[in-house]
Design a protein that fits this description.
- The structure is a single chain.
- This protein is 71% helix and 0% strand.
- It has 216 residues and is an all-alpha fold.
- It has a single domain, classed as CHAD domain.
- Helix 1 runs antiparallel to helix 2, helix 3 packs antiparallel against helix 4 and helix 3 runs antiparallel to helix 5.
- The longest helix is centred in the middle third of the chain and has 48 residues.
- The protein is elongated, with a radius of gyration of 27 Å.
- The two termini are 16 Å apart.
- About 9% of the residues have low confidence.
């Protein structure tokens, strides 16, 4: 997981709004830095890091949403959509990896069993061992299990491809509608709350920043 970039210039003496703008700017730049990898579905690690960056930006916006116009909720929803599509991709990748591990273990156990039969020279002639090898190699249950597991991989691979397509569509819309510009313009404005009220709030939350990981 890529480390979060340090936010410089956060000052407890400044208002929450001013500190929040600085944090949002850094988190937005983090997210945009992974944009070059969106078009390549094989850049699994980079796209996963884009998801982490999206989560950090989302949590930042959710933490400080009280300080900005209510329309910020719509932008949070756009970030969440990108994050969730990549999450669906990640879920499929993890499942496929796990099933392949199961197949590898079963194939290794099967190969070991066949090897034991083949080398058991004290247990029958070559012809007899050949018959036992054929029987073990063509066991119906093993074949059914293998077909089921590979079919599961086929389903999850299809789901991953669909999640990737939806992610790319969301990202292209992100860029076409100038998400970055819209967000920067929005956080450049205070909410309709009284400015003096905002400036009187403590800034410890801004200094700490949002948690980097969490559910959702």
């Amino acid at each position: 997981m890529v480390k979060a970039k340090k936010v410089k210039g956060v000052d407890c003496k400044e208002s929450v709004v001013i500190n929040a703008r600085k944090i949002v700017d850094v988190r937005l730049r983090e997210l945009l830095s992974f944009g070059e990898y969106v078009g390549d579905p094989q850049k699994i690690d980079e796209i996963h890091n884009l998801r982490i960056a999206a989560k950090r930006l989302r949590y930042t916006l959710e933490m400080f949403r009280f300080a900005f116009p209510k329309e910020l909720a719509d932008l949070i929803g756009e970030v969440k959509e990108v994050q969730e599509h990549i999450g669906d991709m990640r879920d499929a990748d993890v499942m496929i990896e796990r099933v392949n591990e199961i197949l590898a273990c079963e194939n290794a156990a099967r190969a070991e069993r066949l090897q034991q039969i083949a080398t058991a020279t004290g247990r029958g002639t070559v012809s007899q061992r050949h018959l036992r090898i054929r029987s073990a190699a063509s066991a119906p249950k093993a074949a059914r299990d293998e077909v089921a597991l590979y079919t599961l991989i086929a389903h999850r691979a299809g789901e991953r491809d669909e999640a990737y397509r939806q992610f790319v569509t969301a990202w292209e819309r992100f860029e076409a509608t100038d998400f970055a510009g819209r967000l920067r313009r929005m956080v450049g404005q205070e909410s309709t709350q009284e400015i003096t009220e905002l400036q009187s709030l403590p800034s410890e939350a801004a200094v700490a920043g949002p948690e980097e990981e969490g559910p959702g």
